[in-house]
Amino acid sequence: MLVVNTIEELQLFFEQQKGKSIGFVPTMGALHKGHVSLVEFSQQKCDITVCSIFVNPIQFNKQDDFTNYPKTLESDLKHLEAAKCDVVFCPSAQEMYPNKIEKDFDFGILSSVMEGEHRPGHFNGVAIVIERFFEIINPDFAFFGEKDFQQLAVVKEVAKQTGFNTKVMGAPTVREASGLAMSSRNLRLSEDEKIAAANISSELKYITLNKTAFNPQELKANYRDKIDANPFLKTEYIEIADGNTLLPVINWEDSDYPIAFTAVNVGEVRLIDNMTIIN
Ligand code: AMP
Predict the structure, then answer these.
(1) Is 37 close to ligand 1, i.e. is its CB under 6 Å away?
(2) Is residue 279's pLDDT more than 90?
(3) Most buried residue, 48, 176, 214, 241, by CB count within 10 Å?
(4) Domain ranges within the chain, ordered by starting residue
């Protein structure tokens, strides 16, 4: 497995591999089985898999979150080696952004609801880094987790708006045995917080199984009550929205693809999750 820090080294490698299809898995490191599953999807579909590890400063709307983001490079490389990833690209911020960054994407509703509303500027930062990666790597396929469902929708829009031919693929959320969605930020949870955080997925699951008994407002209110009753948890938002438009579902008839989306603060750590609601 080749590990490179510069665009020049990466492009030299691509020149030696001319004609092969490239799959790309962008990450911010602190890798877990969710990330590895994306590498595996890429390997099934493409000749070469490139994984990037870059904690993108411009997608953090809180300095603390950026500073405290877990960094585990040594173990990340072991995971990627074991998963038979071909190349790992770990650029510096200077390598990624040698010039002043100024671009304002317009994603309309996609970036103004839920994560867009609660993390101003976040998706613009994501879009800028993804466009830059696409420019450097020009992948045939790029793989993203449905755990960050709204990000996946935004990235599909980035590919469309910027005219890259990269096909953006989504992959299912990988969970702990407790149901907790795997996340790099879970490394920052205490044991008690980790146990409490498993309620996020069990309460989302309750929503997905109770469409016939309750309307969306009732299910959202019940979720908030249950989550906030736990002293370790505080709901930031719970939304039921259409998976295609991300518009809120007021009545079940509004959508044939409703998804429950949430952000919950677990102590100092903000976690997100979502689940598709069964018809
Ligand atoms: P991150 O390192 O958190 O920026 O995530 C890198 C990629 O891994 C993104 O496409 C995420 O959606 C994806 N990812 C993160 N957690 C999971 C998970 N539990 N299951 C599947 N994919 C995930």
Answers:
(1) yes
(2) no
(3) 241
(4) 2-171, 189-273
